[in-house]
């Protein structure tokens, strides 16, 4: 009977060391410059809109603000339009762009642009300190109509 409590105590101790000590042992063995293992698993990838199953055809938008996420258009015309983009799928095939076309970034897309700016700035001789400024809208002016395809990588063929 005297060995049972000792065996049980040893089993509990080994289990706790196995559960709580494993991460410490991995971190102690790896060098800071060589990442090993999976890292911190957060499971917080943003959910962004998928492509709309409805294809808009031949629509003309002028002087409008249009969400780009999920937009599925063929042969549409956009004149002086501001697109708002958060990182979702889009498909604009054979569309015509005229006037000033702006793309504003929000949510996941804005965070991605900000991260890319920080990474690029970090490569500079003096890395940035403090929070990075938000992404500025991108724009172009088409003095004559331009027909183009804008298709996101997440869009089905």
How does this structure look, described?
Helices cover 27% and strands 30% of the residues. It has 157 residues and is α/β, with parallel strands linked by helices. The protein has two domains: 1-41, no CATH class; 56-151, no CATH class. Strands 1, 2, 3, 4, 5, 6, 7 and 8 form an eight-stranded mixed sheet that branches. The N and C termini lie far apart (71 Å).
Total number of beta strands: 8
Poorly predicted ranges (pLDDT <50, ≥5 residues)? 1-31
Helical stretch count?
2
Helix and strand pattern: HEEEEEEEHE
Main structural class: alpha/beta
Straight-line N-to-C gap: 71 Å
The percent range for helix content is 25-40%
Overall 3D form: globular
